[in-house]
Predict the structure.
Amino acid sequence: MDPDQLYDVQLIGRIEAGDQGAFAQLFDRHGAVVLGVLTRLLRRREEAEEVLQEAFLQAWEQAGRYRPRRATPRGWLLMMARARAIDRLRSREARTRREREYPAPAAADPDAPAALEAAERESTVRQALGSLPDEQRRCIELAFYEGLTHTGIAERLEEPLGTVKSRIALGMRKLRQNLAPLHGRARA
Amino acid sequence: MSTHGDLLDRIPAYALGALDGEELRELETHLDAGCAECDAELLAATADLERLAETVEPVEPSEVTRGRLLRQVGEERARVGRRGFWRAAATVAALGLIALAGSQHFALRGQLAQLQADREATSLRLAQVREELDAARAEVRSLRLAASIVGSPGRRTVRLAGLDPAPEAAGQTFVDPAGGRAVFYASNLAPAEPGTTYQLWFIADGRPVSAGIFDVDEEGSAVVLVEKTVPADSIDLWAVTIEPAGGVPQPTGAMVLKG
């Protein structure tokens, strides 16, 4: 763990003891990155802010359950936030199956300039994903950017479930190697 | 029933949120039972998730969301505090009933209660020691960073003067223009009243931006490390105000330091 992560681990320890100042710091250090991911997933800024609030409240309540050996602090926050966003996407999808066939165009995003910048940054991951076989890359993109499950990806791509599972497992391992140069990069 | 290898392979998808149903339940049960190999894989997978997240443009949360969340946390803390009070009251009442019963087991129960009380006191002390240790580590790190900012080439120094509520107070801010970080020192400030806190602000382009909340030590001093500022040239003013505990998105209270 780098010094930033160690500091975050200490903040989470202080949050467990009820330290509101530590909580405010944790939010200020990670809120923008988590909200960026949520906005990309949900494509609705207001809803993304609601989920951000829910996820950080969960972090406050469950700080005692955080285990540094099992997740990086930001990774822990991202997993909680994404799980909530993905739940919302599923209920949204259950309400209207149309979205699967007619995805909302990017132009409908109220944060169009932000969406454009996001698209530019996406090219970075596309570079890192570039050396993956197309089918592995596609599975990971559908999971990360669209919040689809194994089953959802199999349905979307009309591929057997087992194939999708192994593509994600293999693809993520390779991606780890490809993204390694980004590891030491300063945080946003 | 999946093999351990199956469960291990499933972890990257778990970190991505792509598991559901029985596969998810099975893996979570396995993780809860404790598995060092799977823990290590999950740690690596969350680092991958962080890197993927870095490819998406960050979106600064609105002050409304921040303020609402901090208020909620404050309320939650007060509620849990009250729950703790009722639990303690219930324990006292239960011990009272035991005493009233006056049975032949009285002495034994008294000892048990004493042992339980001792154990609770020890746990509490242990938690306090852990907290103190964490705080000390955080402080060492902050001081190291602060020293690096103060010693950075081209750093700017801003002096803050005490205002009417605290005319004898003083402050100084060192801004590292390259790193976008700053360190603030305050002295001669009285401890914040219960339910309030000091909040540091910088005003850039006419807008106040919160730089953190703090309280002072026994000598009335404080050090605040500001992780992220705007370019030093666009900061017009630094100020400290007295605000409700937990801080606020925009300044509302009396200003005690300005410069």
